[in-house]
Amino acid sequence: MSERLHEERIEGKRVYEGRVVSLDVDRVRFADGAEATREVVRHPGAVVVVALTGDGQVVLERQFRYAAGEVLLELPAGTLAVGEEPLDCARRELAEETGFGARRWRSLSVFFTAPGFTNERMHCFLGVGAAREGEATPEGDERIEVLTMPLADAVTAVARGEVRDAKSIIGVLLAERAVREGGWSA
Question: Are 154 and 145 in contact (CB under 8 A)?
């Protein structure tokens, strides 16, 4: 890493502590001595799951997202519990939100969701051989409609702007590449 780009935290203050996120206002110093303020949303991390059924359907959700103010088409996803391994979280979230499970799992990527203001890391998993294993049991504050579509149609939905959630766009495109290049069919 180039040392001249590094920012050192001088001081900070936690201004909000919520159920899922907290907000810190930090003072930082650059290598050249200049200083700046950074507002950082701290997040425990999350997972996003691309679950493919035996016939190549991807499991998706429609859910109203209050911050966006609209219903979005998304992949199943959720927040890591304290001490929880990302793959365990992926399995749990897929089952809770959709009632599906998967036979084989592969990590596709780990990425920052919006590093300009949050430290959230998203773990993206591909689950193949997905099938309904039970009833979905979403959390009490979630209202989710589960649907499936061919992976190729999900890629087209991304290209048309019908999927506008960043984690879902990334997940669909990474899964399509993994299936195309690596033989990761269901």
Answer: no
Q: By the 8 A CB rule, do 86 and 165 touch?
A: no
The CATH number of the structural domain formed by 46-182 is: 3.90.79.10
Report the predicted TM-score, pTM, of the whole model to 2 decimal places: 0.93
What is the tens place of the pLDDT at every residue in 74-100?
999 999 999 999 999 999 999 999 999
Give the Cα separation of 79 and 124 in Å (integer): 12
Cα torsion 103, 109, 112, 114 to 10°: value is -80
Q: Are strands 22-30 and 100-101 parallel, antiparallel or unpaired?
A: unpaired
- What are the phi and psi torsion angles at 95 (to 5°)? -65, -45
Distance CA 46, CA 79 (A): 4
HEC string of 22-54 equals EEEEEEEEECCCCEEEEEEEECCCEEEEEEEEC
Neighbour count for residue 158 (Cβ, 10 Å): 20
Domain ranges of the chain: 3-42, 46-182
Report pLDDT digits (tens) over 113-171.
999 999 999 999 999 999 999 988 877 788 999 999 999 999 999 999 999 999 999 99
Residue length, the chain? 186
